[in-house]
Amino acid sequence: MATIKDSVHDHIEVGGVAAALLDTEPVQRLRHIKQLGTVHLVYPSANHTRFEHSLGVYHLADRALTHLGIEGTQAERIRAAALLHDVGHGPYSHNVETVTQRHTGKYHDEVHELLAAGEVGDVLRDHDLDPARVADLVAGESQYGQLVSGELDVDRMDYLVRDAHHTGVPYGTIDHERLVRELAFVDGELVLREGNVQTAESLLLARALMNPTVYQHHVARISKAMLRQAAERLLDRTETTPAELRRMDDHDLLVALRTTPETAAVATRLRTRDLYKRAVWAELDAVPEDVLDADFDTLRDLEARIASRADLSPEGVILDVSDRPSMTESTSRVMVGGEMRQLGKQSPLVSALRTAGEQQWRLGVYVPDESTDSVGQIAVDVLDLDVDGAPVTDVRPGVTATLDEFTGS
Fold first, then answer.
1. How many Cβ atoms from other residues are within 10 Å of residue 195's Cβ?
2. How many beta carbons lie within 10 A of that of residue 316, not counting itself?
3. Alpha-carbon distance 342 to 323, whole Å?
4. C-alpha distances out from residue 160 to 34, 189, 230, Å
5. CA distance 316 to 334
6. b/e map of 214-241 (b: 16 or more CB within 10 Å)?
7. Domains of the chain
8. pLDDT, one tens digit for every residue, the chain (409 residues)
9. What is the C-alpha separation between 157 and 192, in angstroms, rounded?
10. Strand 10-14 to strand 183-186: parallel, antiparallel, or no bridges (unpaired)?
11. Distance CA 372, CA 5 (A)
12. Helical H segments across 23-171, by residue range
């Protein structure tokens, strides 16, 4: 049994298969992957890692198993899945996942091959655990997979509290102890017991508030987009394979970018925080459907058209189109009057938060600082944005102030 001091959960006791997995290379690699990618360029203390988070998820899963009365081999599978749930992440966490997924067809939670091979597979089999069944849990499959990956999973409970702690932003603070204690399985579904509508709402509200202030902060999005563009160029112009990129850590990727002539300039910008600026920052209603639904090649073509008209190199323009707003937490299930109900149908907060999410959504066009004025109107024309008289850098009809400007630059 190992006891580890954690900044969020205090002392975490790690035993059994989890203790044996701790010192394997795939788990130790997570020490070198930032939990929040480039968010440290906004909040300097946001340097916590996927390793810390994985320990936290393991801890909350272990607590949940105690309250749920799950023991034996099934409990060990869940503990292993909780600790291993992020070993499939590439460098800078989600920041370049779209790049690796586009080339490999795999997201970070598709880890069957990774868990079956090498040290991890050996450790699991030494503890009489089938790597494939553990990988299924990581992917959220089966009843118990909901604990690791689902609307009420311990992954979400840990990262909200941990991200709030390390950024200093208080909005992610939730009563994770109560959430874990009130979990139950009803007809194979993970739910919160009676009297916990507000508990479920707190999880939803925390995620909704952390989104614009941390996860989708404009500086974090710009730096993430620059990193993503550089990673694409690394694959296109060097012998680096998508599989190799997927197994890099943050340091590996930065070194690769700095030592590759085609990406060295971006690496320097990221290292010195000399980031691109917003030429356009457009709200959802201003963006045509064909741009919202554009695929990778179409977006790159739009970037090239903007760059050509602005007399910039192709890499001098980045078009950043986020996924449409969603609120998966609203499908969390709570018991009300002896019936299992979805939070979205029970809570009056959900509609308001969904509206807020749509209002906070932004399309960004990013360019070097000196080109923002010249590129802005060109991008509006190429993308056929409905500016309706709003400033080009804040394309929100009837609104001229941005809630994102209270922190960062």
1. 11
2. 17
3. 23
4. 15, 23, 29
5. 49
6. bbbbbbbbbbbbbbbbbbbbbbeeeebe
7. 2-168 (1.10.3210.10), 278-324+361-409 (no CATH)
8. 899 999 999 999 999 999 999 999 999 999 999 999 999 999 999 999 999 999 999 999 999 999 999 999 999 999 999 999 999 999 998 889 999 999 888 888 889 999 999 999 999 999 999 999 999 999 999 999 999 999 999 999 999 999 999 999 999 889 999 999 999 999 999 999 999 999 999 999 999 999 999 999 999 999 999 999 999 999 999 999 999 999 999 999 999 999 999 999 999 999 999 999 999 999 999 999 999 999 999 999 999 999 999 999 989 999 999 999 888 878 899 999 999 999 988 898 988 999 999 999 999 999 999 999 999 999 999 999 997 655 555 654 333 333 333 334 4
9. 14
10. unpaired
11. 47
12. 25-28, 50-68, 72-84, 97-104, 112-116, 118-126, 131-138, 142-148, 154-167
CA 20/CA 54 separation, integer angstroms = 14
What sign for the dihedral angle of Cα 96, 100, 102, 107?
A: negative
| Amino acid residing at 54 | S
Tokens of 268: 């320097």
In this structure, the chain runs to a length of: 409
Residue in the structure block whose two tokens are 């309706």: 388
Written as six digits, the tokens of 212 are 């614009």
What are the structure tokens assigned to 73, written together? 């081999």
Residue type for 329, please? E
